[in-house]
Design goal:
This protein has about 220 residues and is an alpha+beta fold. It contains four helices and eight strands; from the N terminus they run ββαααβαβββββ.
């Protein structure tokens, strides 16, 4: 993952953040193929079926969902996501639903076969470990992979069992990696930057950085972590 990420909307408690640019890789304009999805429920959100109205805030098909995520990522790169895709509740709802649709929709043009057949890669940057873990919990649940607590590593990448998660203070960077039919790997390190957000890889396409609290904006999921 790139360590240059951007602040998007708010996380669970932080306010007055500035949307910053992000260095992207593997995210190019692509021709996306339309297909419909069936109703499924992930993370407490019901996804649309092909009969849903096109006037709904939910993207009606996979093509519009992928295009919205691509536009959002481009706006993050340009530093305009805060005033376009994140300014209103309706726009954030639409972004969230597009994310759920994309998870469920294989896309050959970017080598995304779905979370059960493709690697799930997440990068979470937060002002503290508590917010990072909440965000990691929400995004792993949405993508249908096991949530595991990260192990602390130093800046050199070496594991340090003497540092416990409750002892971490200040910004952190959580890296999560789950390969099909393998146990997830997750690490956390201290982070010196001021940026916040979640980076998600859909095959060859990077999306983000998405808001830390996008998937539980109303904080309904307060179960212990």
């Amino acid at each position: 993952f790139s360590t240059k990420v951007s602040t998007s909307f708010v996380d669970y408690t932080e306010r007055n953040m500035v949307v910053r640019s992000v260095t992207l890789s593997g995210c190019q304009t692509r021709t996306l193929h339309s297909s419909r999805v069936h109703v499924r429920r992930r993370g407490g959100v019901t996804l649309p079926n092909s009969a849903d109205s096109a006037d709904s805030a939910i993207p009606p098909n996979s093509e519009s969902a992928w295009e919205l995520l691509e536009r959002f990522t481009r706006s993050e790169f340009q530093g305009t996501a805060g005033s376009t895709h994140l300014a209103t509740r309706a726009s954030r709802d639409k972004l969230r639903e597009a994310f759920y649709v994309a998870i469920e929709t294989p896309n050959e043009s970017i080598a995304w076969k779905g979370p059960s057949q493709s690697p799930v890669l997440l990068g979470v940057l937060s002002s503290d470990i508590r917010l990072a873990l909440r965000s990691l919990r929400d995004y792993t649940k949405a993508m249908g992979v096991a949530y595991v607590l990260p192990k602390y590593v130093g800046q050199d990448g070496t594991a340090d069992a003497s540092v416990t998660l409750p002892a971490l203070r200040g910004p952190v960077y959580v890296r999560f990696r789950a390969l099909p039919d393998s146990s997830p790997q997750c690490t956390v390190s201290r982070y010196q930057g001021e940026d916040r957000g979640v980076l998600v890889n859909f095959g060859a396409m990077q999306v983000g950085h998405l808001p830390l609290g996008l998937l539980d904006e109303d904080k309904l999921n307060d179960e212990a972590m």
